[in-house]
Amino acid sequence: MDLLLNVSTNGGWEPWIRFCLEGVVEQSIDAEKRCDKLLQLHQDFRKRIKRGSARLSKLIDGLFSRPVITVTQYKNRFNVSYPTARADLRKLESLGIVQQLEGPGLEVITYYCQPIYTITYEDTPD
């Protein structure tokens, strides 16, 4: 706030611009580290499914843009039966890629990918 006030009162633009650019640099470095971690995680997931179906590969890809999915969403997205969708998600659960969300008020079977969520929202890259 002091730097911004200095712009208004004294025309001190240089310290304000430097402050803003330092923030941009820090955020860029953070984003690059998170992207690297997500790429490594994606490769790890692909290794875990090895000879899995093309659907599982596409599901993994989709988790990186939307890390929460219901069985019904999966069924509709890949035009498969509900039992097939449930079995595929259980397969990813057994591989430690997704886990089922549970709790009061949760009426549909929902899975999420905790590692993606952690890197994207919680993790502080080194």
Question: What does this molecule look like?
Answer:
Helix content is 68%, strand content 7%. It is mainly α. It has one domain: Orthogonal Bundle (Arc Repressor Mutant, subunit A). A three-stranded antiparallel β-sheet has the order 1-3-2. A hairpin with an 8-residue loop joins β2 and β3. It is elongated and about 70 Å long. The protein starts with a helix and ends with a helix.
Tally of separate helices? 6
How do the helices and strands follow one another from N- to C-terminus?
HHHEHHEEH
Query: Care to count the β-strands?
Result: 3
Q: From the coordinates shown, what is the CATH architecture?
A: Orthogonal Bundle
Instruction: Write down the CATH topology.
Output: Arc Repressor Mutant, subunit A
CATH C-level name: Mainly Alpha
Sequence of strands across the biggest β-sheet: 1-3-2
Categorize the overall geometry. elongated
Q: Please state the structural category.
A: mainly alpha
Spatial separation of the terminal alpha carbons: 29 Å
Write down the domain tally. 1
CATH superfamily: Winged helix-like DNA-binding domain superfamily/Winged helix DNA-binding domain
